[in-house]
DNA sequence: AAGAAACGATAAAACGCTTGCAATATGTTA
DNA sequence: TAACATATTGCAAGCGTTTTATCGTTTCTT
């Protein structure tokens, strides 16, 4: 016995109306006499009819599904964004197809094409470095795309971020104001514009403002994992730095722990400011001072923006910058 | 100008073959003469044809998409599972529709129906408490379902877990062997079978084995967040307990931090064993001794099991139990 | 060299729904 | 009550694939 499905046709027959009328009822089209609507709804209920979204998608050319490309869901930074995205998506009756890319540009392209083949109504992209090929795919497709927590130097597509440059500047100034002259910049890959452009220039600006001199030796390039931080700690210390701005919480915790395990006192011997204000900053001791990014909101606003784009609504500004701040905790004086 | 799509028909016309032939080469059906295949592939490439997955889904009744119901992606425990799921899904050419339920049973039912409406080929469910209504929906649908990190007392559907009872017993025995007589059991909602049945009976068994007596006063019911742990610490201490088995890492860290902030030494004054072995256990000081669960693998294996189910393959055992262990760290002696 | 078998390709019927347009029913105005 | 406006419904053509039944060709067999 095969999976015997109830179709709109069955409902129409049972209710003595046409498929069109059933369709109207299902879609909340107001051009249906209340009594007819009631009759149809009863039959729908009785037969336990459930509209086939795939058929709907084919007929209407809308899938009420959006694709989400994310480097790694199991990373707290991205999963926070993802949660914001999904909540707003749900609010607007969309579902999310979530795919991990590991930040690998080849995978990103594949995944994007796969999502477009599935006829998603829109795409939210999170990634570090947007390659030319990817940008080409973006513009080739007529599907709306929004970047979340990722900057596109070209601003061709919509995006939601904070002012990374300004935030970094403020954080470094805080450190400088505390008397530090050698402040390390512990970054993710400098190839990512968000690090190599935005944050780095914020760092430089702060140094200049405070009359400190820039030194290559204080720049550390790394990936974002805890372990990297642990491994990096000694080198950072040997550079002569007495404070650091770190771009990832895991990384920052790694450095802080390694330093402390080596007998240093934080913040007395070394001060740290991190960048994501995730739960980690609250959990470790001392708690970490952090730039505050509204992660959940970045996701939520990005999705909201995407709904407008998908709806062809008028957009005031497709590049939105959310407010940031600095939450002072125990890792700075 | 409307989004002008290339269809299989365009390809067929350009290549002087029928739609059916194009379909065959796209689907790798061997019944096509190599020369014809080559010709078709050239046209596909030239026109940049991309098969419409929605139309395929309608015609073939397969969407190569699976639904994933998760309480909260931004929780490290679940996002680890999710990552395992997605990796294996990708391996088998499936995509994932990810939806957050907050563990709310009403939402779970809605979401499930929504996913089924979208004609997903299978569902992976993560949740705490499986209500009767949900179980009814499970059995009503002919779509394969697998539980990941969630136990169903009925074992009606497939599931992947560890032996929570055994793991908890071992953990409590460890504490008892260290001389503790009053060991707290800090649990999530006892309504969840995983807590109220599995873990709790593991706890009781351990007490019995060690000749300790069970006391209601040592059982704490809570949710899983860090803040709950902080708030709970004092009560746990007042209960007279000198050690605790905690079912969630966030919760455990909350308790550990609150205790230490109150001047207690861990493990000297209080010992803790937690349950998820997430990054948190490694990050905090002292590091937390934990039951080890292969989170990523639970997700991965669940998805692998689901592929077999979707493929109607012979299943040796649809309830799989993965190995666990205990990783001793600084929160126990 | 005729017939069987194997192969390659086609035509057309689904798949389950939306939607523009036509048809019918109902209501209103004078 | 005729004539016209408006509210409800039905018809049927897609939407872009897959897939089955069918047919025309080749290739063997003997």
Automatic annotation (TrEMBL), chains A, B:
<comment type="function">
    <text>Global transcriptional regulator of carbon catabolite repression (CCR) and carbon catabolite activation (CCA), which ensures optimal energy usage under diverse conditions.</text>
</comment>
<dbReference type="InterPro" id="IPR000843">
    <property type="entry name" value="HTH_LacI"/>
</dbReference>
<dbReference type="GO" id="GO:0000976">
    <property type="term" value="F:transcription cis-regulatory region binding"/>
</dbReference>
<dbReference type="InterPro" id="IPR010982">
    <property type="entry name" value="Lambda_DNA-bd_dom_sf"/>
</dbReference>
<dbReference type="InterPro" id="IPR006377">
    <property type="entry name" value="CcpA"/>
</dbReference>
<dbReference type="Pfam" id="PF00356">
    <property type="entry name" value="LacI"/>
</dbReference>
<dbReference type="Pfam" id="PF00532">
    <property type="entry name" value="Peripla_BP_1"/>
</dbReference>
<keyword id="KW-0010">Activator</keyword>
<keyword id="KW-0238">DNA-binding</keyword>
<feature type="domain" description="HTH lacI-type">
    <location>
        <begin position="6"/>
        <end position="60"/>
    </location>
</feature>
<dbReference type="GO" id="GO:0003700">
    <property type="term" value="F:DNA-binding transcription factor activity"/>
</dbReference>
<dbReference type="InterPro" id="IPR001761">
    <property type="entry name" value="Peripla_BP/Lac1_sug-bd_dom"/>
</dbReference>
<keyword id="KW-0678">Repressor</keyword>
<keyword id="KW-0804">Transcription</keyword>
<keyword id="KW-0805">Transcription regulation</keyword>
<dbReference type="InterPro" id="IPR028082">
    <property type="entry name" value="Peripla_BP_I"/>
</dbReference>
<protein>
    <recommendedName>
        <fullName>Catabolite control protein A</fullName>
    </recommendedName>
</protein>
């Amino acid at each position: 016995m095969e999976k015997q499905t109830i179709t709109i046709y069955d409902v129409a027959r049972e209710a003595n109306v046409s498929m069109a009328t059933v369709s109207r009822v299902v879609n909340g089209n107001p051009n249906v006499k209340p009594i007819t609507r009631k009759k149809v709804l009863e039959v729908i209920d009785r037969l336990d009819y459930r509209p086939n979204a795939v058929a709907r998608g084919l007929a209407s050319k809308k899938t009420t599904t959006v694709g989400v490309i994310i480097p790694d869901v199991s990373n707290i930074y991205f999963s926070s964004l993802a949660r914001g995205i999904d909540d707003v998506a749900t609010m607007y009756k969309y579902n999310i197809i979530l795919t991990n890319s590991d930040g690998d540009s080849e995978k990103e392209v594949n995944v994007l094409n796969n999502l477009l083949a599935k006829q998603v109504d829109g795409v939210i992209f999170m990634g570090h470095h947007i390659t030319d090929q990817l940008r080409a795919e973006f513009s080739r497709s007529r599907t709306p795309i929004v970047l979340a927590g990722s900057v596109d130097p070209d601003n061709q597509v919509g995006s939601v971020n904070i002012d990374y440059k300004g935030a970094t500047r403020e954080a470094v100034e805080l450190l400088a104001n505390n008397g530090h002259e050698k402040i390390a910049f512990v970054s993710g890959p400098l190839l990512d514009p968000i690090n190599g452009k935005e944050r780095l220039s914020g760092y430089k600006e702060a140094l200049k403002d405070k009359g400190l001199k820039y030194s290559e030796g204080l720049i550390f390039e790394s990936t974002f994992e805890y372990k990297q931080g642990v491994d990096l700690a000694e080198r950072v210390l040997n550079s002569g730095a007495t404070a650091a701005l770190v771009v990832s919480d895991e990384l920052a915790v790694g450095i802080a722990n390694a330093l402390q395990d080596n007998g240093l006192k934080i913040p007395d011997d070394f001060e740290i400011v991190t960048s994501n204000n995730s739960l980690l900053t609250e959990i470790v001791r001392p708690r970490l001072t952090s730039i505050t990014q509204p992660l959940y909101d970045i996701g939520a606003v990005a999705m909201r923006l995407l709904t407008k784009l998908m709806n062809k609504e008028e957009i005031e500004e497709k590049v939105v910058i959310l407010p940031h701040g600095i939450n002072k905790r125990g890792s700075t004086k």
